[in-house]
Description:
Elements: E1 8-17, E2 20-30, E3 35-39, H1 46-54, E4 61-66, E5 69-73, E6 76-77, E7 85-88, H2 100-105, H3 112-125, H4 141-153, E8 159-163, H5 171-188, E9 191-196, H6 199-205, E10 208-213, E11 216-221, H7 223-228, H8 233-239
Parallel strand pairs: 3-9, 3-10, 7-8, 8-9
Antiparallel strand pairs: 1-2, 1-4, 4-5, 5-6, 10-11
Helix pairs in contact: 3-4
The chain binds adenosine-5'-diphosphate (ADP) and magnesium ion.
Magnesium ion binds at residues 46-47, 163.
Amino acid sequence: MPDTSPRLEVRNLVRRFEGTCVVDDISLSVAPGQVTCLLGPSGCGKSTTLRIIAGVDCQDAGEVLIDGHVVAAPGHFVPPEARGIGLMFQDFALFPHMSVADNIGFGLKATGSERTARVDKLLERVNLSGFGNKAPHMLSGGEQQRVALARALAPRPRIMLMDEPFSGLDNRLRDGIRDATLELLKEEGSAVLLVTHEPDEAMRMADEIALMRKGKIVQRAAPYNIYNQPADRRAAEFFSDVN
Ligand code: ADP
Ligand code: MG
């Protein structure tokens, strides 16, 4: 039987900036092999939620659990590098002095042919076969972003946090890279929390959508259900452009 107990769990998370609650009692969970989309308009608190889960920001209340173990709670903090989390944020940065292949292999423990095989497979998946020896500055913005994606996926993170990772890609490439990313993440059985402000992207990629507004989750449901039975009129309007 597949393991369906949550790999990532967030309970009653609260984060205030200057008295304003930007994350207001957020709870969610993600099982292995599942993609949950945190979907909502700009400024609703998506990135802040992700940053707390990653361990690069701290909550004012609530807790984060990984595999049932608390990694963040009042008075308890497991550092980011000990959480087994892969990150793909909007403002990715490649190591400029390393080749594309070395960037992708950076987080790998494997050496020799095993390492080369993993890097080559990832290069192929992000449509960059043959780019391994190039320097990052020789690549376009979209190509660099795909390298960053491959680098994040390389160590097979148990949890993958992605913050608008496809937003800089042109339309022609985006669907292909989305599909390749999903396929890889599913293969690895990662638990994925994907942040996006685009209903289209959530509909395409999510097993479950958590619709956010002003720091709160207003609805959690499968894409089909949330599209057909939005919780309220504003949710319906938010999805009205999806084709
Ligand atoms: P989203 O990712 O959904 O666009 P964010 O989580 O980035 O939203 O931001 C939520 C709100 O919190 C915004 O109003 C933003 O201006 C505010 N905010 C985020 N980070 C900080 C910070 N470090 N200090 C003060 N306000 C912040
Ligand atoms: Mg954001």
